Amino acid sequence: MKLFARYVTKMLECNRCSISIEEYVVVVIMDAGGPQKMNEDMEAIARMRAITISREYGSGGGEIAARLAQRLGWQLIDHEVVVEVAKALGVSEAEVEARDEYTEGLVSRILSSLQMVEPIMLMNSATLPVENEQKYRDALQNVVEAAVTQGHVVIVGRGSQMLLAKRRDVLHARIVAPLDLRTAYVMQREGLNENDARARIQLKDRDRIRYLQTEHHQSPEDAHLYDLVVNTGIIDLDSAVDLIVLALERKAEKLATPTGKLGPALGMPRYPGRPGDFRPPESVTESPQ
User: Fold this and answer.
1) 110 located within any domain
2) Domain range enclosing 42
3) Looking at residue 220, which CATH number applies to its domain?
4) pLDDT tens-place string over residues 187-242
């Protein structure tokens, strides 16, 4: 019903509106397939365990995740990941924050700086960064998997699109926007001037890209990692939430479909004729006369 409320509001703002809220809601529900269809959609969504949100800094991805969690009544997993990883490792939240979504590990940075002062004492500590970095990865994996096992969570960042890539009951979305609009967003939200806002965006984006490349050998900009990519350059944040909810419903409907029967070819007939730009494979390697 929250989804329909937005349309009701828009309808009431129209001077030509001549029906009551109750009448309009009935019209919208019937047009959507009636209460039975609504119940089916909700049941389908309930079978999904999580949504992961990857985002360019300043695209509104964090805000979209929060609104999405509120819309669905799901738990938002953002800073909670940091808290749980800190508990698992027995360190402070600040230490995990310093490591979180950053390229170079916290332990590695500390040891590197100390080696500049005490190179002899720390000569044999080269294996420590690897060991502690692995502990961080294991703790992060366990926390994210525990959240998904609990179910109905919206997970922001933390490489969750890779950690949960093989799960079909998880929807993966990425939020992007043009740099100039992201700059304006950060200026408004964080009270920065244009140069500082742009520099902050570039730093955060660079850290996130390097993090995923270092930890998972993937680029967060690869659209193939996601079920849906939304550009908030024109689409407003609430509409982005609508699109993600719709994608969640559609993916949930395919949970029982065998993997081999998924894809763009499903249900598509053969072309009636050969495409006009068709070239036999051998012609690709032929040298022009």
Assistant:
1) yes
2) 33-254
3) 3.40.50.300
4) 999 999 999 999 999 999 998 999 889 888 999 999 999 999 999 999 999 999 99
How far are the Cα atoms of 208, 249, 277 from residue 281, in angstroms, in the given order? 40, 40, 12
Give the span between the Cα atoms of 153 and 203, in whole angstroms.
Answer: 28
| Residue 190 resides in a domain | yes
Kindly report the average pLDDT of the chain as a whole number.
Answer: 76
pLDDT on residue 274: 76
Give Cβ neighbours of residue 153 (< 8 Å, ≥ 6 apart).
49, 50, 51, 69, 74, 75, 76, 77, 147
Beta bridge partners of residue 175, listed in sequence order:
55, 230
Distance (Å, whole) CA 208 – CA 162: 13
Chain segment 99-124, per-residue pLDDT in tens: 555 444 433 443 344 333 333 333 33
d(CA 23, CA 27): 6
Q: Which two tokens stand for residue 40?
A: 């089916």
The string of DSSP letters for 170-224 reads EEEEEEE--HHHHHHHHHHHH---HHHHHHHHHHHHHHHHHHHHHHHS--TT-GG
Residues 6+ apart with CB under 8 A from 12: 21
Q: How many domains does the chain have?
A: 1
